[in-house]
Amino acid sequence: MTTEILHDHLVRVTLPMRGAPPSVNVYLLRGQRQWILIDTGMPYCAFTPPDLELIVITHMHADHSGLAVELRRQTGAPVWMHRDDTALLHDLKSDGVHAALLRRQMEKARTPGDMAEAVVKSAGRLLELFPAFTPDDDLPNGKRFDSALGPVEVIHTPGHSPGHCCLWLEQPGWLIAGDHVLEKTTPHVGFIPGRDALADYASTLGRLRELPAKLILPGHGAPFTGLNEALERIENHQKARAARIRELLAESPRTAHEIVTSLFTRVSRPGDYHFALTAVLAHLER
Ligand SMILES: [Zn+2]
Q1: How many CB atoms lie within 10 A of CB 253?
Q2: Helix (H) or strand (E) holding 56
Q3: What is the pTM of this model?
Q4: So what's the pLDDT on residue 267?
Q5: How far is Cα 101 from Cα 18, in angstroms, rounded to an integer?
Q6: Distances in Å between the alpha carbon of 264 and those of 9, 241, 261?
Q7: Ligand 1 centroid distance, CA of 163 (Å)
């Protein structure tokens, strides 16, 4: 664990993770009485926060929400998360729902049987790291709360997950970005039944471009500048991938599995295959 004091009132705590990415950032923002914790790390992360008045979760993935229940119990602080992620988390944690959905998707994609079984197993192991919980309050777009660094505004940024939110600190001009904007990689935007996740993601770009952001505080990696450049890079990456998929389909009809193996070189591990497939399915949904 390392800590970086970005300001007297804001600390970045980096918690090591097993596998990739190698670490996740959580942020301590001084509130009105005690600290506000933004994201929590994996359930296995050894992290003891100071006294907390609030826990805000940018999105429901285990590396961001994993310790939410335990830290709520330890500190008594309420947990806020967007209702769309609460709904998805409840679905995923319902017995067998996620495995059945995955099997249906992979049947349609014509994933070979042994890979499909390996993906279901590996996704099940990953899902065990997700805490089953109900937040104490919703985190709707436009919600504001106070901090020692001035008001904090919630910006709903669906795409990486349906209820993903960024937090905008207007006075210093800092954006706590979760996994919506990362400096070196493109955030994973995967298929979610009933949603056009890529359209969700694209719909947030205009709003973010208007922000006079001086510093981006991401969920993974060091703080960085240049929000618009990062958004443009991500948008171009998604456009290029969409174009490549159209090209492949124009050459000959292909299953989603064939598109995955044509587009991605490293998909022999079930976890990597799973992410690649849901990314391709998000494009096919468009
Ligand atoms: Zn993450």
Answers
A1: 8
A2: strand 52-56
A3: 0.93
A4: 85
A5: 26
A6: 42, 11, 6
A7: 14
